[in-house]
Design a protein that fits this description.
about 280 residues, mainly alpha, 2 domains, 11 helices
């Protein structure tokens, strides 16, 4: 008696949990679909990702639901209840087709997003390079002006004087090295100038050479461009995971749905209902 009661309770519990899991996924599907847009690929990517990440929930629900019905087969005296198996199998078949459609669409959107991102990065880098070249051209034109050239030379002398006074004053030099507000790169330069004063002249000459500064900035722009492009190209991995997950879910749901409907004779019943010509 106790074993039969436990079996009935277990079967009913599994059915209830299975139905709840399936319904919770369907509710999530409806809520997520409220923001779906057939023209906004970003929304499509987020929607597909959310659907696949939740896709295993009804799979567990189907397993628990049919396990509950399987337990019922061991008790012939069990009273008949509402049979959710046919609706569940139909839902499983529909989900299989849904995830089968999601996989190629998501793959296409991922490729489109990557291509668009790379094009935008390349475009922004090109604009930055053109702007830098225009600035270099303006500075080179100004260097032809004797007054501007004299101002540059005066500034070079001031910078050298400031560095020389700092390096010659051991107390100020140590304070600068111990100052947490001074960047480490600047501290490294100070150590370099202290060890070899000629490096200071080279540094000032480099910083006052607009063409050399432009080349340094150009190298930074291109390095940043290459880094961003690499990051954009590496973003296909999460998208590939969603595509593979969607295909696996599709196979699982189609197998459950179609094999279940065939096993319960749903297809044969439908054929018998078709009138003979």
């Amino acid at each position: 008696m106790n074993n039969r009661f436990a079996a009935v309770l277990a079967a009913r519990t599994l059915k209830v949990i299975g139905v709840i899991l399936i319904l919770s996924f369907l509710i999530d599907f409806l809520i997520l679909s409220l923001d779906f847009s057939p023209t906004d690929k970003q929304l499509q990517l987020r929607w597909a990702t959310a659907m696949v990440e939740r896709g295993v929930v009804p799979l567990v629900g189907f397993g628990m639901l049919f396990t509950g019905y399987w337990i019922d087969t061991f008790d012939d005296s069990n009273q008949p209840s509402i049979d959710f198996r046919i609706p569940a199998l139909v839902i499983s078949s529909i989900l299989g087709l849904l995830f089968l459609i999601i996989a190629p669409v998501h793959a296409t959107n991922v490729i489109h997003q990557r291509t668009q991102t790379v094009e935008q990065i390349t475009k922004d880098a090109g604009l930055a390079e053109n702007q830098l070249k225009n600035q270099l051209s303006q500075v080179q034109t100004q260097l032809g002006n004797e007054q501007f050239k004299a101002a540059v030379e005066k500034q070079k002398i001031q910078v050298k004087t400031q560095y020389t006074e700092l390096l010659q004053d051991d107390q100020r030099y140590r304070q600068a090295l111990n100052n947490p507000n001074i960047p480490q790169a600047t501290k490294d330069l100070l150590k370099k100038f202290k060890a070899n004063p000629q490096e200071l002249d080279k540094f000032i000459a480099q910083q006052s050479d607009p063409e050399q500064l432009a080349n340094q900035r150009l190298a930074q722009i291109r390095a940043r461009r290459d880094e961003l492009i690499k990051q954009a190209e590496d973003n296909w991995k999460p998208g590939l995971r969603i595509v593979i997950g969607s295909l696996l879910l599709s196979v699982a749901y189609i197998i459950i749905g179609w094999s279940g409907l065939r096993g319960m004779g749903a297809f044969q019943s439908a054929k018998r209902k078709v009138p003979a010509r």
